[in-house]
Amino acid sequence: MNPLSSKATFEIKHHGTNPCLLLEGNWRDSRERPTVEAMESALDGALNRGVPRVSIVLQDDVVWDARLMAMLIRLHRYCRDRNSELDLNATPDAMQRLFRLATAVDNPPSRPPKPPGFLARLGEGLSHIADDVGRFLAFIGELAVAILRFVTGRSQTRIRDLFYFIDLGGPKAVGIVSLISVLVGMILAYLGSVQLRQFGAEVYVANLVGLGMVREMGPLMTAVIMAGRTGAAYAAQLGTMQSNDEVDAVTTLGLSPMEYLVVPRVLALILVMPPLVILSNSIGLGGGALVAAGMDVNFVQFINQAQDAVSLGDVTTGLVKAVVFATLIAIAGCQAGLQSGRTSAAVGDATTRAVVHAVVYLVVADAVLNILYDKLEI
Amino acid sequence: MTDEEDLITVSNLTMAYGGRVIQREINFSIARGDVFIIMGGSGCGKSTLLRHMIGLAIPASGEILIEGKNFFSAGDEEQKAMRRNWGITYQSGGLFSDLTLGENVAVPLQQYTAFTDGEIRDLVDYKLALVGLYGYQAYYPGEISGGMQKRAALARAIALDPAILFFDEPSAGLDPLSSRRLDELIVEISASIGGTVVIVTHELASIFSIATNAVFLDAESHTQLDVGSPRHLVENSRHAVVRQFLSRGNAMPVAIGGERNP
Ligand SMILES: Nc1ncnc2c1ncn2[C@@H]1O[C@H](COP(=O)(O)OP(=O)(O)OP(=O)(O)O)[C@@H](O)[C@H]1O
Ligand SMILES: [Mg+2]
Fold it and tell me: Which domains does chain A possess?
């Protein structure tokens, strides 16, 4: 008989009182193999009689692999639960050794807590919103204290880190900020030109682009870019540090994670955002001028008109926004990173959360600031 | 291929990171069924040598043959077939942190076999039971101790009953008793599944209790000092460094060797 094609079978034999499970055939390659359940029910009669022992016997040409071992381990537990034991003394040496190893430690631990179901999580999610707001405010408070200590020179923040993060966030973002700004400037100009041409007032395109960039689009678009670039990077860095025990090490070395990790990141972003916004404003105006040139408003006219329209106050409102946005982005990133779990999936979640929170904060803060400016008539 | 033929041959191997040579002129061979130890001081290039053997790093020069085949000149399918025969644990664990232990052990089974879900579930149970972690299927690596993580990594490495097992410091960081138990578990399991084992370690207890052969790498001369059975080398190595390295734990070989086969 060809061993590869031979079927895997078992039968129960009785030697005296104790039953014996005889295994035959090729248990490694054959497609149809009996299940453990089949063996269990074949043994049920004997087990119900209370036999103390079930022996396993392998026919000489039996071919077996780890799957047969896995079945025997299950069968062993089945017999043990019915006050009987599986006896492998008649099986090959390797099988006996594996069996001994696999049954050496046989008391399972208590189950780990099950993750809560969807509804429970939804409920928890709602009650967590209050916690979230609380944590956010606490974070801002701690950060304010840490920054104050930094300013008064009593902090553990390393200046070297500050420069490192400035370099990471600033010069390296110039390319993408320029690209987006020139496009936004052009879009604003197109949008305005279509309307203004109806009144023959093309030259006012400069007012629209100038005010639009300086007060609104410059700070906002730069902030969105920085949220995706720098905020996400902060969350990923801190999340990975969390999972490598680095954050714990910072704490137990007597350093404050807030001063050592968060302050340099937040300050760096606050310092690089205003220059980037000024860059964005200028390049946006350039983009607008390009489009205006196509409508017979030449470059000098455009710049003069824009200069008349945009006051220093307008530029300042934009820069105030830049500072507020920078703070919010950095906080969203750092907070997500520090509260990250320790698995690789958790670090991914933290990064997502950093960007989503940052964008929400940005839009809310922008609305609040615009209302404020309106009331104060600036 | 006959059984006497060497399973792994390393010839004139030079390993470097960038231009920096870590080790040169490495020569040794590992026979089928060996428990082969890569030993040497910290930072001498043990992990690096292992990474070269498992095809994660390309030799600067020289060659590593496994079952007569060079991993880097093999085609995709052949590389996959070679990898299927290897079980590997890494120095810093390498368990997937976002999968449970059960899912971790199931990964190679799902990747390489056509077993049914039920069969895979039973096999995962069994492999975890082999390393003493029965019942821990639903735990995440972050929820168990460091020693248990080492054993879980072992369970994943042996999931496919591989012909060659590569372990990078499997027992580092464990207490001496657990560490010895883990070492013995490795030998016991590999003997039962008929495998060859390559272990990186600088722990003397492991070296004497489980090794059949060993290579000693030296950080200063950037090459291997000696190859042979540790019991032989401790007395007879031509190099004083090797004799000293091995005899630091003079009392150990006797005690552990005596206890292993009661
Ligand atoms: N990715 C890498 N890039 C550059 N150099 C490396 C890299 N990995 C290791 N090295 C260098 O190679 C040398 C050997 O490192 P390796 O990790 O192989 O040592 P080891 O013998 O395993 O040490 P240990 O016992 O501490 O684990 C070290 O000097 C290390 O600095
Ligand atoms: Mg190493």
Answer: 3-103 (3.30.750.24), 154-376 (no CATH)
